[in-house]
Specification:
Blueprint lengths: L2 H4 L5 E15 L7 E11 L5 E8 L3 H4 L9 E12 L5 E14 L1
Antiparallel strand pairs: 1-2, 1-4, 2-3, 4-5
Length: 105
């Protein structure tokens, strides 16, 4: 469920999320090269209000600076909510412009 995430459209916020796994997606030109992604679950605001049960993050660079990332690791980060076309009629939401990533315990 990402309905609450949509209420924050275009707003920059601090979020927390739990790393589940790495993934990849094809680049925009459909060539074999893939773009790394990561799956965060239980995405919450600082007051622990859940805004999405999961989010696929496309820009993984801010997370790579944290050395070894394992399933279950929890992160705090800043990002802006944006939309993208999910299919021909629907839109979905994701978090972009991620920065200030830190591991939390």
């Amino acid at each position: 469920m990402k309905g609450r995430l949509g209420l924050l459209f275009r707003k920059r916020r601090v979020f927390t999320g739990e790393f589940q796994r790495w993934g990849s997606r094809k680049n925009w030109h459909g060539k074999p090269a893939s773009v790394p992604t990561l799956l965060l679950t239980n995405v919450c605001l600082p007051d622990d209000e859940e805004v999405a049960d999961h989010v696929w993050v496309r820009n993984v660079v801010p997370f790579l600076c944290l050395n070894e990332i394992k399933g279950g690791d929890r992160f705090r980060f800043e990002g802006r909510v944006d939309s993208f076309p999910k299919d021909s009629v629907a839109i979905d939401f994701h978090i972009v412009d991620i920065e200030n990533v830190e591991r939390v315990h």
